[in-house]
Amino acid sequence: MAERKLILAFETSCDETSVAVVEDGTKILSNIVATQIDSHQRFGGVVPEVASRHHIEWITRCIDQALAEAGVDYSDLMAVAVTYGPGLVGSLLVGVTAAKVVAWAHQLPLVPVNHMAGHLYAARFVGEFKYPQMALLVSGGHTELVYMPREHEYEIIGETRDDAAGEAYDKIGRVLGVNYPAGKTIDEWAAQGQDTFHFPRAMEKEDNLDFSFSGLKSAFINTVHNADQRGEELNKFDLAASFQQSVVDVLAEKTLRALDQYPVKQLILAGGVAANHGLRTRLDREMAKHYPDVLMLQAPLKLCGDNAAMIGAAAAVNYQHGDRAALDLNAVPGLMFDRMKSM
Ligand code: KG4
Ligand code: ZN
Asked: Which of 9, 168, 286, 313 is most solvent-facing, going by the fewest CB within 10 Å?
């Protein structure tokens, strides 16, 4: 039995190859992230086949670097953890296979982790978790409100019915000629413009906790195309600000509605889109005004995107709860939170 509680974590669900060493679920000893963005940019999005090949090329180098940077060896590890879903099947399989090989070769327990639980646990590096808890998880593939009555129990209480928020950012970014992934640039432009277009806020006032971003995306694209046909050029900063205001309004409104219905001690904000400055500031303001007693933990900017450190943090909790995978663990591209209870 290793003395230190060190977990070697793998994340390869999409287009980042990442390996990390995390101690006690709270301390990052190393977090290597090899991004493939350059290879996907010219296609305007992630090409699954290209992504899997990159993961294969990079994974062993990432393992070596993660161990070296952490200053540890395989014999110091307590467990190996891996994202097994949701994500792209070919990408997931590379991480799952690598993790299995390390677990088998070094006789270490293998801890399966849900990618979205991983995003949530990026906020664990900011402070201790208290339950009941609510999380707004916003990424390129998912937009959901998750209620956690207690540790290791996740209930999705609201989700997008069509596009994820990050996906909408990437699609409208493409129309404005912004390289994939567009979220960061649109966020920067939004800060320099005004909401002059007043795009729709779908489902904002509806009595449910779900989201929809495809109508907003279409309204945005139509506005730009119509102006193009008239030979008119619209102000890109105002377009970005208007789009972002709609997204942030809906996300904030539904989060407050969820907090009304589910009293909690903490609100977690995590996922790639949680890096959005407009969203962070808005939630800070709303929480101070309406829920001053609910502590908000926002995932650190550097850990909002996909990375293995967050997987290591989530894995530490799974490990304590006895989650172990056998060596026949498979990738589950459509993995949902309720599947975790049976793991
Ligand atoms: O969580 P993530 O790294 O990957 C998925 O699991 O999907 O999220 C990536 C998404 C992309 O759609 C990207 O455009 C978006 O997060 N994103 C942002 C910002 N930074 C990244 N969206 C809005 N504002 C940002 N600052
Ligand atoms: Zn992600």
From this structure: 286
Ligand 1 atom closest to 305 (CA): 3
Q: Where in the chain is the domain with CATH 3.30.420.40?
A: 6-120+304-339, 128-298
Rounded-to-integer distance, Cα 182 and Cα 99, Å: 31
CB 256 within 8 A of CB 267: no
Indicate which ligand has the atom closest to the C-alpha of 270: 1
Determine if residue 119 is labeled as part of a ligand binding site.
yes
pLDDT in tens, 183-225: 999 999 999 999 999 999 999 888 999 999 999 999 999 999 9
CATH fold label, 128-298 = Nucleotidyltransferase; domain 5 (3.30.420)
For the CA atoms of 44, 48, 54, 57, what is the dihedral angle to 10 degrees?
-170
Give the tens place of pLDDT for each residue, 133-148: 999 999 999 999 999 9
Over residues 82-88, the mean pLDDT reads 97
